[in-house]
Amino acid sequence: MADAASTPATMPHRVLLKLSGEALMGDRQYGIDPEIVRGIAAQVAEARREGIEVAVVVGGGNIFRGVAAAASGMDRATADYMGMLATAMNGLALQDALEQAGCPTRVMSAIAMNEIAEPYIRRRAVRHLEKGRVVVLVAGTGNPYFTTDTAAALRALEIGAEVLMMAKNRVDGVYDADPNRDANAKKFDRLTYMEALERRLKVMDSTALSLCMDNKLPIIVFDLTGEGNLLRLVEGDRTVGTLVS
Questions:
Q1: Rounded to 5, what percent of the chain is helix, strand, coil?
Q2: d(CA 109, CA 100)
Q3: pLDDT tens for each residue of 86-116
Q4: What is the pTM of this model?
Q5: CATH of 4-244, one of 3.40.50.300, 3.40.50.2300, 3.40.50.720, 3.40.1160.10
């Protein structure tokens, strides 16, 4: 897999989109905003019509955060399994919106939920993508103590995605401070993996970032609420978001 730093900005064939649970709740304090989900589905459908194969890893922080529950005294493994169930709820909501937007979609889970999702099998996931289906991956890696960021990096590498796209809610890239709290926060257009790790910038957790670095998987952090941003990125527009490579 080529490093994006030395690769022309050409349209990728296959991408993995990482959606945080927070990206699905819009301005709400909790849960799912149907309008936001429909907007995300419309952007994915648009990219799919351009011939891009799209897999999506979805988080569950809008419903339940395992780390937060563990910090409050709950057993960490139990809390993480509950978080995995939250990602399945989000995945089903996204599947419904995608299919209403005309995208055949398969939800695949890392833990067994046979009545609502297929089991995640790498070769089957790749086959779905080759047939033009959007694949929504839920339940993280199926293991406690691993975040959905790590699941996104792992699945992107497994399915041969050319780029990992980290969708944020109203944050248009990586900054040196929280742009919602600091008006002087500086946005980065491009970073190296080591810069992101050493400066502890909020690209993704360190395990996931190290996995991408070791395998030279480019990461783009961008605001999915910006209309057309996903298509602009897959078409090679590097003025959107922050590239980490």
A1: 40, 20, 45
A2: 21
A3: 999 999 999 999 999 999 999 999 999 999 9
A4: 0.90
A5: 3.40.1160.10
